[in-house]
What does this fold into?
Amino acid sequence: MKEPIAVPVAIVGAGPVGLAAGLELMRFGIPFQIFEEDDTLSSKPKAGTILPRSLEIFAGEGIIDGVLREGLRFDEVHFVDRPTDKVLMRMLMSPMGDETRYPFIVNLPQNDLEALMQAALCQGGHSIRFQHQLKTISQDAGGCHLWFETPEGPMEVAAQFVLACDGGRSIIRHQLGIEMAGVTHPERFLVADFKVDLDRRTGRPLTYLSYIFDPEEWVIFVRQPRFWRFLIPIPQGASEPSQVEVIDKVRRVVKNSMLPIDFLDMGVYHVHHRTAKTWQKDRIFLLGDAAHLITPVGGLGMNTGIQDANNLAWKIAWVLNHHADRALLETYESERAPIARFNARNQADRNRDVMRMKSPIKRVGRNLILGWMDRADGLQWQASHARSLLGTSYKPARKPPSLLTQIGTARHFVRPPIEVGDRVPDGAVMGSDGKRHHLHSLLEKEFVALLLMDPRKRMAVDPDVPGLHQYVMHRFDAAFDTGLRERALLDPGGHLQKKLGIDEEHFILIRPDAHVEVIAPFLESSSIVQAYQGFIQQQLPTELPKTGVL
Ligand SMILES: Cc1cc2nc3c(=O)[nH]c(=O)nc-3n(C[C@H](O)[C@H](O)[C@H](O)COP(=O)(O)OP(=O)(O)OC[C@H]3O[C@@H](n4cnc5c(N)ncnc54)[C@H](O)[C@@H]3O)c2cc1C
It folds into this structure.
């Protein structure tokens, strides 16, 4: 047995979520090691759709340029009635143009995304330990112990924290005895990739993501940067279609029996809707498919996992840097598990139900609602805010607006004010360095407090504390003799403040994952620092045990 190696954070699994977790920890300068049982990254294209919120996260992780360069960007998702070939609804991402720098979806095969992530990790000086298969894991008061099988023999690793990113069959989840709640659907999904020219299809041109509804056999078409993907259900008990049969099915859907098609690849997957009953056991955390298996109708599995990594990594960084106590880590499960359950049940599974609706009466109702959503700006905004995952919120459970309110706001829509738990919308401001900044780029390494106050009032603001930077944001710039110049963010015309919907003389405390933690009146100089420390320290029942690993 080799000498045990010690790392503050061990990441098990180099799928997209393990790699994203590494990039997030790298962003905060936390040492980590990724272990992967295979000898390379996966070559399976699997996830192919990256949603706007993941693009924002990738900007923070430093891989956005590569993703935009390699991927296929698009605005319109179509919901189509197969029997009539009528587009029932065009869901647009462009209504998010005032919310994010990335108001579009990007199609990019998962294996290409993983290669970009690996390159960024490499550039940051991090390698992946391939051919390290985790066999056993345990933990005690001092930390976690992992035993790997490697080509050089067994290896032991000691870590303060373990991120289980080892996928749907997670050995870590299994060894911790954590059960999954939910269902496995009776049908399987067939995913096939082709070289085919559907761009110049006669009749209705295909957008880059189409959900084609049919009670007998629904279909999803996804345009990837270099090929087309086709997804259909295989009914319970039916055998897998051959390549020839699949090609025939594609031709039938696009109503062109002579269409030339080059077959590339095909896979059959079981479809689940399951989430882990527990996401944390002391120092070990489940992320991505290890924590949730989401039906791939809606492209939510990997996107949800990317958000898991974005939620947990800064908390681990704050704990390891002694800014916060370990109890902060418990907010990972309380915040993320409800989101994963919502994405699995109310988004992905509902998409599946809507696509295969059998009752003709229900289908008439569905088509009317979709037609209405297609035309009402407010409903379009709400749909794309939710579907892009920009609407993910960790706010305490709250009653959704009544149907009447929703109908009332559907046509003449005004963005609702932000609330605690929401992801803060992005927006441009002018910094004291004379440069234009995006609010989200200020959040890359720390908490940001925005004090919405006229700097001419010359209010006193406490000095910053580790992990927190305070800004005064206003439509009036701060003169040098106010003492606030270094903190000033000029918000021309008060545009960003109006978008946030928060009154002057308030402050907003925003976390490094862009979610709002506090909105409160600014009472005195210490208000902001107290609120920040209250959040990270009120959960400080014990000292971080000394493990000797750091
Ligand atoms: C057909 C299909 C289409 C999809 N489309 C989308 C989409 O468009 N958008 C979307 O968001 N999601 C989509 N998904 C879901 C997405 O592919 C998964 O959610 C995603 O792969 C999960 O990533 P992960 O890193 O959690 O797990 P995985 O990708 O499964 O990676 C886990 C890694 O852990 C490694 N590992 C496992 N056990 C061990 C061990 N004992 N020791 C060391 N290493 C280990 C594995 O080798 C693997 O590399 C799709 C899935 C399928 C099947």
Summary: The pocket of flavin-adenine dinucleotide is lined by residues 12-18, 35-38, 42, 46-49, 110, 133-134, 165-168, 171, 191, 269, 288-289, 296, 299-303, 305 (CB under 6 Å). Residues 330-355 form the longest helix (26 residues). Residues 539-550 have pLDDT under 50 and may be disordered.
